[in-house]
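Possible regression after last week's pipeline update?

I re-ran a chain I had predicted before the update to compare outputs. Posting the input and the new output here so someone can diff against the archived version. Not blocking, just want to make sure nothing changed silently.
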Amino acid sequence: VPRALNGPRGIFGKALVRCYQRTATLISIQREHMTSLTVDGTRLGTGLSFRHFDAPACGALVLSEWVEELPEAFAVGQELETFVTPEELREKCRYLLTHEPQRLAMVKRARARVLREHTYAHRSRPRLEWLEQPVGRPTQVHLSRLDRGAAPAVR
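New output (post-update):
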């Protein structure tokens, strides 16, 4: 593993894109048990990480530790793979490394799903719609610019 991946700074931007593009299968271990909880015990946020979306967008297959929200975002077994035990991880790694056409088909489907449903524009839309709700002084966030890939105009 390159030192940049082990250090406290990690890699970002174009270097991360190149890393994903050189990766046949990215293994994602979530540590979901470390997610923050509210006072009543409900989990804050999600077990999904940026890598679930970034890696397929760059052409890498994700082999992820099971995360509860994955089926809401991807077709498990068709667009990415999951594992629960170390044995299952080993089996799926062996399979994916020896069945290149199947792996590439999964990558193609996952990338299409990300571009169709999970870009930053798609994923930020609910937050921007929430911001449009009147609270005191109304704020207008024009989502039409977001549809064209531009930054939202706030007035």
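Follow-up from reviewer: compared with the archived run. The beta strands are 25-28, 61-65, 81-83, 141-142, 153-154. Marking as no regression found.
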